[in-house]
Prior knowledge:
By secondary structure, the protein is of the alpha+beta class. The protein is elongated and about 70 Å long. The chain has two domains: 10-155, ph1033 like fold (Roll); 173-317, tt1808, chain A, CATH 3.90.1570. The strands form two sheets. Strands 1, 2, 3, 4, 5, 6 and 7 form a seven-stranded mixed sheet that branches. Strands 8-9-10-11-12-13 form a six-stranded mixed sheet, with helices on both faces. It has helices spanning 23-29, 50-61, 136-146, 176-189, 192-195, 201-215, 259-272, 310-317; strands at residues 10-14, 31-34, 67-72, 76-83, 88-89, 103-117, 130-132, 223-227, 230-235, 245-251, 277-281, 285-290, 296-302. The chain has eight helices and 13 strands. A hairpin with a 3-residue loop joins strand 11 (277-281) and strand 12 (285-290).
Amino acid sequence: MVADFSSSRVWQVGGGSSGKSCSDDFLRYGVALIGPGDLGPWPGAYAKDKTTRFLRQFVEETQVSDIIILRQGRSAVKAVGIVASDYIYLTQFEDVDGWDLQHGRRVRWFPLPEPYEFGTAVFGANPTRYSGVGMASVVAYARRFVQSPPTDWQNARLPDLPVQEADLDAMPPQIEAVVASARDLVPLYWNPPEFGDLPTEDELVAHFAIPLLRALGWSKELIAVKWHYVDITLFDRLPRQPENCRLVIEAKRFDTGFEAALKQARGYLNTLRISRDVLVTDGIRYRLYAHEKAFAPVAYANLSRLKKSAQTLFENIKRN
C-alpha cells in the first residue's frame, strides 16, 4: 500500500555550490546535513540570527516522513527523499569539503538520473541552506513523485554512516607552526565584524601554501609563483622548464570549491604539453588529484582539522 503524502510538508536542502558540492555525501550516506555545527548539538550556544532560523526549522519543525528535496542551484532537483529520523548530531561530518555540517537527519533518497529542471528560480533568487518549500508547483511535484511507482525505496535499508576519522596524532614537526597558524586564524576569518572581508587568494598563498611547501622541504628556487600563469609550480630540478615540473598548484579564495580550480589547472598542463598531478588549495584545505588516475582525488588535508589521512597528502607532496 502506497503511503499518503498528499498533505505532507515539503522541505528543501542545499547540496552546496557547483564547485563545492556535498550532495554526493548526502546520497551516499542517506543523510541531510546543515551547518554551521562547530558549537555543538542544538540548541547549544547558537546566536539568534538567520542561522538559528535554519537550524530551528531543521531540528524542531521537520518531522519524520516529511518530504525533502535535494536542491541543485535555484531551479533544479537532484533527488527527492523521505525524512527517516529525528535530529541527530553527527560529528563525523565536521569537515565536508571544509564545511562543518554536524546537524543531521537520516533520509531515504531517490536520486534522479538527471537533475529535474523547473526552468525558473523556484527556490528563490538566493536559496537558503534549508527551508520549507512554498512554491505550489514544487510542492505538487514532490508529493506526486513520492506517490508514483516505484516506491520500494521509501522502506529500503539506510546506508551505513561513515566512521569518525581519527585525528592526526603524529604531526610532522616541521609543519607544526603552519598548522598552529591555521587553527588560530580560521575562526577569525569566520568573524567578519572582527576580521573584515575574507582573505584574498594571494594572501592565503603567502601565509599558508608557501610556508607549508617550505616546511615540507622545497627550497625557494624550486617553488615558482605565477610561472606560465600557474599559481604555484614545483620543480624537481633547475632549470624551470616544463619537463622538470613535479606538481602544479592552483589556489582559490578561502571557502570556494575545488572543481573549477582543477579544470583551470588541467588547462595549464595542456598548454605546457605535460601531464602532472594537481594540488588545489584555498590555503587551509588541500586536495591532490592524480593524473595517472584520470585526475581522481587521492589525498586531502585541512590544516585546521588534521585527520590521519592527511599524512598521505603530506607524503605525496613533500620534497624527496
